[in-house]
């Protein structure tokens, strides 16, 4: 009864927070913090996967393409490592880190964001690499055009969004990956002394380097300009259908074929599937709705801290029932408010919700906040000790995805559904769809992308409730079914042997060696991600996904967690709790 009351109390807080949502709240912190001798870069969660700092002695803020070129030339002349950073910082792996040495510089594009050129007749739009996605979308929408593909989170720049393969959801047209809508880009790369130590090259699809540069992980040079193919403006109509998950493994393909921007959310502990019916409609269709996704809205700091404290308490007491109360309450609330859809820009009144593409395709309202209001912020803002979680994202060949879901259902039946409530507190499993891409580090076939978030402990040696379940699902995805990791997300174990999953990987490396022969943009961190290196294991390394356990010491035997085989995927090795062995 106490768990039920606590869950209802949190939902009541959330309802009140939604009803009093205002346009001002505390904005996210700047990811760069500098003193007189050093600059440190953090991601949006405030902590990297290895919990170590990322730094460089210096940061520069060019405002023009020529200034960008000059800064790279200066770094090249002085044999410095270079990493490009932005005013956003939402990549979970340490791709933006130059390494551990002092011979490095951050080049920020925060002030390089002034130019967006729109050609209505050719239906193209070219932007500076530092332009934010929301600014870009609003600009082209005013010109009567729409960007077809965008990620669900808009806290990215136009250069950043293509660098890591960010995407929305679609198998129609050019598909849901943003980089597949790029028709040109400019890249600033190192050069010899005769060429001024740095030069600008312009790439189009006919150039052999183009498919390497579309998803480059920041390793080929500085993306200074991006040109997108856009379309005449249109609206979207969205309806969420909450239903039973009994046939989800057989229905996902038909769903995406019938719905241009459709996706599916699956709450396994609730036996619930949420089908998003999402299609374009003519611009003259009645409706002025917006997609203000609940998870990306500003939340009362009190609420975010209360949710975290409650979940942490259930973790510490191994209270599965408490987690299930939270999951049930939150899923019901999402259904009640249409998951953040608003018919009239203010509240949700019913389906369908129809609105302009620019207001329906992506969201992130907690980004645009005034520092005056210090009571609201993004729920994961590291300054408030709010939500803190892992984010695993796997890209499956569509032909294998149904069998993966069947395996997860088998695991659910073995461990009992209530032991999967942890993932449903967040967003369950989100299925999105992206088409085959020509990008060397893109997906080689029509794919289903699976996202799931789950609790992360405050320190690296604290095991988690039902840790073995999420580790087995993680290994099922990336090992058994050979799913590719999303380059901007995931724990380190997801990248093991990643180079073997890309048939054109060697072509990307050849382009990298051609454009950056001195490895100015590489580091031990990027090499670990790119080459999926297996590292030396240490005590507790499996607890944070830094390794797959092979011995008990890689888990936490003193707290009752031992390295065991998976239950369905028995080749998996997971840290499982044993109450009889814990001290």
From TrEMBL:
GO-annotated molecular function? D-arabinono-1,4-lactone oxidase activity; FAD binding; L-gulonolactone oxidase activity
- Tell me where in this chain the FAD-binding PCMH-type domain is found: 52-233
Cross-referenced Gene3D superfamilies, in alphabetical order? Answer: 3.30.465.10, 3.30.70.2520
What pathway is this protein said to act in by its record? Answer: Cofactor biosynthesis; L-ascorbate biosynthesis
Per its UniProt record, the required cofactor names are:
FAD
Q: Which reactions does this protein catalyse?
A: L-gulono-1,4-lactone + O2 = L-ascorbate + H2O2 + H(+)
The broad enzyme category this protein falls into is oxidoreductase
Report the EC code(s) recorded for this entry: 1.1.3.8
Keyword check for Flavoprotein: no
Question: Cross-referenced InterPro entries, in alphabetical order?
Answer: ALO_C (IPR007173), FAD-bd_PCMH (IPR016166), FAD-bd_PCMH-like_sf (IPR036318), FAD-bd_PCMH_sub2 (IPR016169), FAD-linked_Oxidoreductases_BP (IPR050432), GULLO2-like_C (IPR055154), GULO_Plant (IPR010030), Oxid_FAD_bind_N (IPR006094)
For this entry, list what GO says about its biological process: L-ascorbic acid biosynthetic process
A GO cellular component term found in this entry reads:
membrane
Q: Which SUPFAM superfamilies match?
A: FAD-binding/transporter-associated domain-like
Q: What keywords are annotated for this sequence in UniProt?
A: Ascorbate biosynthesis, Oxidoreductase, Signal
N-terminal signal peptide: 1-25
| NCBIfam families named among the record's database cross-references | pln_FAD_oxido
Of which family is this protein a member?
A: Belongs to the oxygen-dependent FAD-linked oxidoreductase family.
Protein's name in the database: L-gulonolactone oxidase
Source organism per entry reads: Nicotiana sylvestris
